[in-house]
Design goal:
This protein is mainly alpha-helical and 262 residues long. The chain has eleven helices and no strands. Helix content is 76%, strand content 0%.
Length: 262
């Protein structure tokens, strides 16, 4: 519709100019002035229309209130942490995933190498399996800890995360919450190690290891080691999930998330 109006105006202007060539110089000058004014008016109108559309598109991202920013980010983190907990808190969630599989601690790994030479390596393999089983059993119990941490997030925290890197929320959790998460998670993992038989497997491994002559003593805190590795695995996938929520519309499962990240 705009093109037709512009075309008509230019045609009218051309006719007026042609007619003006046959009139007095004063009249010609008047028509030229009027034509120039008309073209400037059309260009100004187009510029204002374009500016209006640009302002409108920008305003949608600036129209979020502080409460919406915090709520939207908390929704994203709750969605991401729930997905990660669901993925890792199942059988083989850790054990079969090469990215987060929990190996034996360094000291036990060296002991396993010696035990492999005498056919006793299966005891160490059982301990390694049980460490991963403990992480898988403990992970679902971490969900409420993450929810609590998310609930306590401030507006300042939320805006920093929103404007930060793709893993800004994950880094926030690691920096701000790791000590509290470790403290709360330790008894959970400790119970899980007992429930899946990791402690029994460890005791059996050590007993067999000590039957070997001239081997160095081995010590290992299975609980603290497993807590550390379990949290590393959770944070690893939380960072991936956070990045996906920021970039992939399919991951933005609520209207507020779509508004926040678009």
């Amino acid at each position: 519709m705009r093109t037709q109006k512009n075309g008509l105006s230019v045609a009218t202007l051309a006719f007026a100019l042609a007619f003006g060539l046959q009139t007095t110089a004063v009249a010609g000058t008047s028509l030229l002035d009027q034509g120039s004014s008309l073209l400037n008016s059309l260009n100004t109108s187009k510029t204002e229309s374009s500016s209006s559309r640009s302002t409108s598109s920008t305003s949608s991202s600036d129209s979020l209130s502080s409460s919406e920013i915090v709520s939207g980010l908390k929704q994203a983190l709750e969605t991401g942490s729930s997905t990660v907990v669901g993925q890792l808190g199942t059988q083989n969630g850790f054990n079969s995933d090469s990215a987060i599989h929990i190996p034996l601690p360094s000291g036990l790994s060296k002991a396993k190498a010696l035990m492999d030479q005498t056919g006793l390596g299966s005891y160490a393999e059982e301990v390694e399996l049980k460490l991963n089983r403990a992480a898988e059993a403990a992970t679902p119990k971490a969900k409420e800890l993450f929810v609590k941490a998310i609930t306590e997030m401030t507006f300042s925290d939320a805006t920093s995360i929103l404007n930060g890197e793709d893993d800004a929320a994950t880094q926030y959790f690691k920096k701000k919450m790791s000590p509290d998460l470790t403290e709360a998670f330790t008894p959970v993992v400790e119970d899980s190690l007992g429930e899946v038989g990791a402690v029994r497997a460890y005791d059996a491994m050590v007993a067999q290891y000590k039957t070997m002559p001239f081997v160095p003593d081995i010590k290992g805190n299975l609980t603290s080691y497993t807590v550390e590795k379990t949290l590393d695995g959770i944070f690893y996938y939380l960072a991936k999930e956070e990045k996906a929520i920021r970039e992939n519309p399919a991951k933005q499962t609520t209207a507020l998330l779509k508004k926040l990240f678009n």
